[in-house]
Amino acid sequence: MRRRSSALKWSEVMHRQIAINTTAALSSPALHALVAQESRSLRDDAIRQGLASGAYTTRVDGQLGRLEEEVRLDGGIITYVFSDLAQAANWALSECRKRSPVKSGAFRKSWTILVDEKEWTQPTAKIPTGSTVWIVNTMPYARKIDVGGQKVRVDPKIVESVRSSMGSRFPSVKAERGFQALEGGRDARGGAVPYVLKSAGIASGLSWTKKAGWSRKHKAYASRRPDRQAGQQMRYPTLILTERIS
Questions:
Q1: Would you place residue 15 in the very low, low, confident or very high pLDDT band (cuts 50, 70, 90)?
Q2: Using an 8 Å Cβ cutoff, are 135 and 96 in contact?
Q3: 3-class state of residue 92 by DSSP
Q4: Cβ–Cβ under 8 Å, residues 40 and 58
Q5: Which is it for strands 13-14 and 78-82: parallel, antiparallel or unpaired?
Q6: Is this structure's pTM higher than 0.90?
Q7: Which parts of the chain fold into alpha helices (H)?
Q8: CB contact set of 142 (below 8 Å; sequence gap of 6+)
Q9: Start-to-end C-alpha separation, the chain
Q10: 148-152 long-range CB contacts below 8 Å, 24 or more apart?
């Protein structure tokens, strides 16, 4: 099996040449079995070390759906293609938590992953390829923090800052920021999700930039936007991850 990998990327095609000392005593089936065993061992070691995702596809001599035992012994190749999406989701979730304000800890704990709009409770390494991944904070004040409508001791606009950091790290993953409706569940404090606005949202007038910090553009006032009125369900700032189609 040829292997090409880095400690930072799980999804690159793994290549590594396995050198096997053969003797006349080994039959062709035994050689095939040995090559398959060594290939799977290298694959599983990479997954255990966090260098590769648990979601992958296998190609044997360029063909999908074949067993490693079927590889040609005269220059054949076993290739494992790992999911960059799974690694990107793991990194983005960690970054969202790191960049969160911490007071009670509830906000940091409320970051969660949804895969194809359903809460994901398995390890991120098992996120299947071809999925749409949402990373979202379920606290009712998540929108205020993300749009800079509430002063906090860390940089606001967390979703956007993480999104803008992803391009060079995960070029095969498309990262977008959106405001998504959620259905069902509880936040870290036990509050219902989605949060229903009890009164009109407030346009705070606050503004923030990396260089200048906080300032105020205008006095706070009740928003007139239809989606920010009492009785409306909150839409949550969301980091949306999909695989780029090349």
A1: very low
A2: yes
A3: helix
A4: no
A5: antiparallel
A6: no
A7: 28-48, 84-98, 106-109, 142-147, 158-166
A8: 107, 110, 136, 236, 237
A9: 25
A10: 148/206, 148/207, 148/208, 149/202, 149/203, 149/204, 149/206, 150/204, 150/206, 151/206, 151/214, 152/101
